[in-house]
Amino acid sequence: MLEKKTIEYEKAVLIGVMNKDQNEEKVNEYLDELEFLTYTAGGEVCKRFVQRIDLPNPKTYIGSGKMLEVEAYVKSNDIGSVIFDDELTPGQQRNIERQLKCKILDRTSLILDIFAQRAQTSYARTQVELAQYEYLLPRLTGLWTHLERQKGGIGMRGPGETEIETDRRIVRDRISLLKKKLLKVDKQMETQRGNRGALVRVALVGYTNVGKSTLMNVISKSDVFAENKLFATLDTTVRKVVIGNLPFLLSDTVGFIRKLPTQLVESFKSTLDEVREADLLLHVVDISHPNFEEHIDSVNQILTEIKSSDKKTIMVFNKIDQYEHKTIDDDDLITEKTNKHFTIEEWKNTWMRRVGDRALFISALNKENLEEFRKRVYDEVRDIHITRFPYNNFLYPEHLDEY
Ligand SMILES: Nc1nc2c(ncn2[C@@H]2O[C@H](COP(=O)(O)OP(=O)(O)OP(=O)(O)O)[C@@H](O)[C@H]2O)c(=O)[nH]1
Ligand SMILES: [Mg+2]
């Protein structure tokens, strides 16, 4: 019999704060995502702590009373990591670590850790390593200021300072080396992209885990890795797809997330170039996710950051097979109807009013509505093609179904 392998999950605790603009539901949704990230990184969440606080405590993020509560729990439950749903300052991180005496992670370091774990190619690894060192550098500096403050400048010079200075120098050297390495690969990739000729380029973009790779696979009959964890894809895959007689390039790339660390956006610059240089974006959305509208906003924000927000875009609402809306009983006269109660039909109407026919509702998994999807993509690609090659358009019939 095959030996059954059980994965050892590290015990973790999550910490979030609720300010006056957030309700409990919202904070829980954020912590659900943090829990999913933790699970993806190999952790098992034993408890969540939430504190109502308008501004994070500058020393320990949460208040001292809450810290004691967390400390007691960490001690008696053999907790390996305490994970905060926000970026901690280097000082906060250190103070908390000193009190809790276990690993302290923030949202940024957790995401960086997942990226590091998932990077397959040497190119992706280089990009992640750069982002990690960029994250580390101010924290090394922080370590020094902290020692300086604690023990005073005098007597702390010498070995202590040299050590940190050396560390800092090593990290800086490593950063510039990695940047040079990436620059070289960037050039190669640029040439590669140039060699692809005049084909229209379409890019799948969207929040992580929405089904971009699954859609890529059904459309291009390729075999991109897809799974129900976050950041399954880190590298970009480009495939030539032909719909009707019209060939174009389709790319699948890294997923986005709320508060995506800026270090990652920067170091994944060339991976994201595929998006930046695309003629058409397919913005894939997981409509079955309770927070999908916020996901759309996060994605749009990142698209703005990488100067791609004004591109022609089709909104592709995926996972309609899994969509569940809240219902209101007939005799319930109190509950107000919100968009959580919308049916798929109501969402269709809403989005049609917003973007006209540039919104599609599909299930990549069950292959629902894929014909409509192909037809819309065909029409858009054809339009781009005709604009680009006005003398060559006799090749393409007005509509796909004229074949
Ligand atoms: N129910 C349902 N599940 C889907 C559908 N499309 C994809 N999935 C599932 O959603 C999960 C994520 O799919 P991926 O294709 O890996 O998602 P992705 O957007 O590429 O994710 P990242 O690469 O992590 O950003 C997988 O478990 C898929 O099987 C769908 O239409 N319906
Ligand atoms: Mg993917």
From TrEMBL:
It is found in: Cytoplasm. The keyword Lipid metabolism does not apply. It holds the Pfam family GTP-bdg_N. GO terms for molecular function: GTP binding; GTPase activity; metal ion binding; ribosome binding. Mg(2+) binds at residues 213, 233. Signal peptide: none annotated. One of its GO terms (cellular component) is cytoplasm. Keywords: Cytoplasm, GTP-binding, Magnesium, Metal-binding, Nucleotide-binding. The keyword Membrane does not apply. Transmembrane segments: none annotated. GTPase that associates with the 50S ribosomal subunit and may have a role during protein synthesis or ribosome biogenesis. Belongs to the TRAFAC class OBG-HflX-like GTPase superfamily. HflX GTPase family. NCBIfam families: GTP_HflX, small_GTP. This is GTPase HflX. It comes from Arenibacter echinorum. The gene is hflX.
